[in-house]
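Researcher: Go.
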Amino acid sequence: MGRYVEEILQPGEQVRYSTTLHGIVYLPGVVCLAAAAGCAVAAGALFPLLVVAAILGIAGAFLVARAWFQRWTTETDVTSLRVIHKEGFIKRRTFEISLDKVESVDVDQSIAGRIFGWGDVTIRGVGKGIERIKLIASPLQFRNHITAR
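Model: Structure:
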């Protein structure tokens, strides 16, 4: 399976910048797995704590797998002509906006997002409305590639 952006490039159009979701999407699953490991170590012979460890382990594995799949199926690209965002595998959501039609690009970052490099990007387009991309990696670089001419 090739990348979505490579399938829809127009003649003469080139990809300038590509990004995806930040690795922070793995955090809930990793926390569950760490809690499961802690419960398993502390359990000893206590059966109820082993059950809690098993439940947390299954939940953590599910959350990590879901985050990986979400990250794998999300593409965000800036080409020489437009901004392209695709998420989903079977149920797909995409938006494309011409660079000429981009009115503004806003970046929202928390303190942790600034330290570790993730944030939300809001793209306002003329006649297109507002599109928001959450938890994107390197949002300032992404914005700079959109606004640079």
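Model: The chain has two domains: 16-22+76-147, 25-69.
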